[in-house]
Amino acid sequence: MKKYLSILLIIALLLSSSTFAVFADQNAIKVTKNSLPISLWSITPIQSGSDILLPVLSAYTALGATNQQYNETKKEHIIKKGNTTIIMTLGDKKIKVSGKGGASAPLKVVNNVVYVSYKFVASSLGLNVTYDAKLREVKFMSRIPGGTATPSEKYDNNLFPVHSSGIGYAFGYVDRTGKLVIPYQFGSAQPFQEGLAAVSIDRKYGFINTSGKVVIKPEYDAVESFKNGFARVKMNGKFGFIDKTGKLITKIIFDNAYDFSDGLAAVGVEASSQWGWGKYEWGYINTKGEVVIPIIYHQAYDFSEGYGVIVTKNPDPKAYDSSWCFIDKQGNIVSTYTYIYASQFNNGYALVQKHDSKGYRKSAYVDKSFKEVLPQQYDILRPFINDIALVYIGSVGGSGVDLYPMWRDGAYHYIDRSGKQIGSNTFKEASDFNNGFAIVSNNDKYSFLDTSGQYLKDLQFEKALDFSDDLAAVQILDEYKQPLWGFIDKQGIFKIKAQYTDVESFQDGYAIVRFKDDKNNSYNALIDKAGKIIYKSPDKVIKRIDKHVYAVGIFGMFSNIFDILINEKGQTIWAEETK
Question: Based on the number of CB atoms within 10 Å of its own CB, is 204 exposed (0-12), middle (13-18) or buried (19 or more)?
């Protein structure tokens, strides 16, 4: 798959437009995952007949699919999460998932926002979903609570949730050798995070430790895994937080809440009046559960490096402009109201947008004194990565928070922290630098650019992925003009010849590929960096759980079930038991 612009570039581009779409209202359809609210950037889902349509960009982002890219030429929106790749094309009624056939889920554009069915979003990401018409709520559920495991989740211990088979199956945990160390006994089981795992007993949720002992009683309607020492819990439709001892640090009284970051958590309560940003007013609590910044703002974003980003109330309920600003931990607004967008601080800098003298949106960076460290001249400005940033200068078409962007007359180039251009070339398409190289294009072919602005041997490919594990996947055409993938090193030399119909990047010495044999039979396979096949399957998909463990099973549009775990040697360490 082509390496295109990342989701943040798309977001920055979208924020360059002046038109915003669909606002939230009091009767708006709510969206939750595992009973906890998710943010759709204040874009309201819409009902179309018996179907509920969700905004593509924000819905997938909220559900963890943050790797989103766009192919301007083909009008393709590419979404990746774990080993799942989703390709959406405007005007095409079929959506491809992981290179396989298409599912009928036509995209719909409403008020410049691109929508797709909530059922497709769920099936493409391996989630269960229901729509409660009475509550007007779309309810996504991880398939671990629903009866199957989701191997793309991050595990921070050497234990993995697995399930027994047959009617009335239960969940337990195996170690890296496949040994069942926590017996099958739970109605659902999530991966361990920060030493604890969420489980359910009799449809109530609590936590166990790595010995399998229940350390936080299952009494909540929903819980989120621990992050930064605290977990969100839900009971009777309200939210609160617990610490690792199970102690409630605050009463379960909030209508919405986000995780702790930099010692503070944003919390929301239903507003007495509805504003363009939605139905909640926001503030912050500390780790003692105390409200330390009043709950009065339109929106509140995570703190980072000592500062948070808030959106203040504008007299015009549907006005977004000039309402973003920075706030310190004492609740003092430390910047002006002039920003029309502001990002969190990262390595001492934050991205902001303001109107220029002609009324156009322009991007700049500010430091912690809120002084601009680069001129306000860029239509798009990406974060610095190893002191190099991608910028765009030129007119930008498209409007709406979730619209597929349309680039017109302009070009990308790279700058250093002083604003000096790196190299003399400009590009129609370009990516951030990753592992020493960026992927660029001017002619529908893709090349690698090094940090000095020089091309890698002037090589050009049909498609390309970032370098990972010192190898990059590239696609070329064979003698019959059929596209095949292989892997090159940082000298541009093919280390594994082009022979695969689909690939994923190498991680920890291994990559997952798809190929056809001499009889045109297709296989999914795990290979090492010499191209040796470690494991292959003609009908089951391979998914990476961590550097030593892979799941083998049926992963696709309407199922997300694994029945085998293998190690990096291709050996089966666990298989579903049959009762």
Answer: middle
Residue with the bigger pLDDT between 436 and 128: it is 436
**DSSP character for 229?**
T
The half-sphere exposure of 156 on its side-chain side, counting CA atoms within 13 A, is: 10
Cα dist. 294→290, 332, 385 in Å? 10, 11, 35
- 517 vs 519: CA distance, rounded Å: 5
Q: What 3-state DSSP class applies to 370?
A: coil
Q: Could you report the per-residue pLDDT of 86-104, keeping only the tens digit for each?
A: 888 877 767 777 655 455 6
DSSP H or E run through 59:
helix 56-62
Tens digit of pLDDT for each residue in 29-38?
888 876 566 7
124: which DSSP letter? H
Read off the tokens for 314.
């504008």
Answer for the pair 498, 485: CB distance below 8 angstroms, yes or no.
yes
| Interatomic CA distance for residues 356 and 343, integer angstroms | 19
Residue 47: predicted pLDDT: 85
Token pair, residue 26, equals 């009091």
> How much is the pLDDT for 166?
64
Please report which helix (H) or strand (E) contains residue 323, including its range.
none
Q: For residue 395, give both structure tokens.
A: 């007119």
Q: Is 246 exposed, middle or buried (0-12, 13-18, 19+ CB in 10 A)?
A: middle
Q: Exposed, middle or buried by CB within 10 Å (0-12, 13-18, 19+), for 259?
A: middle
Q: What percent of the chain has pLDDT over 70?
A: 79
pLDDT of amino acid 408: 45
pLDDT value of residue 534: 97
Q: In what order do the strands lie in the sheet with 324-327?
A: 299-300, 308-311, 324-327
181 or 166: which leads in pLDDT: 181
What are the structure tokens assigned to 348, written together?
A: 């001492």
Cα 299 → chain centroid: 20
Beta strands in 276-401 (DSSP E): 278-286, 291-297, 299-300, 308-311, 324-327, 341-342, 350-355, 361-366, 380-381, 389-397
pLDDT at residue 130, rounded to an integer: 81
- CA-CA distance, 75 to 397, in Å (whole number)? 14
Distance CA 276, CA 340 (A): 14
Residue 17 has pLDDT above 90, yes or no: no
CA–CA separation, 20 and 126 (whole Å): 31
Using one digit for the tens of pLDDT, what is the confidence trace for 264-287? 999 999 876 554 445 688 999 999
Q: Which residue has the higher pLDDT, 512 or 34?
A: 512
At position 578, the amino acid (one-letter code) is T
Pairing type for strands 429-430 and 541-544 reads: unpaired
pTM of the model: 0.73
DSSP 505-543: --BTTEEEEEEE-TT--EEEEEEETT--EEEEESS-EEE
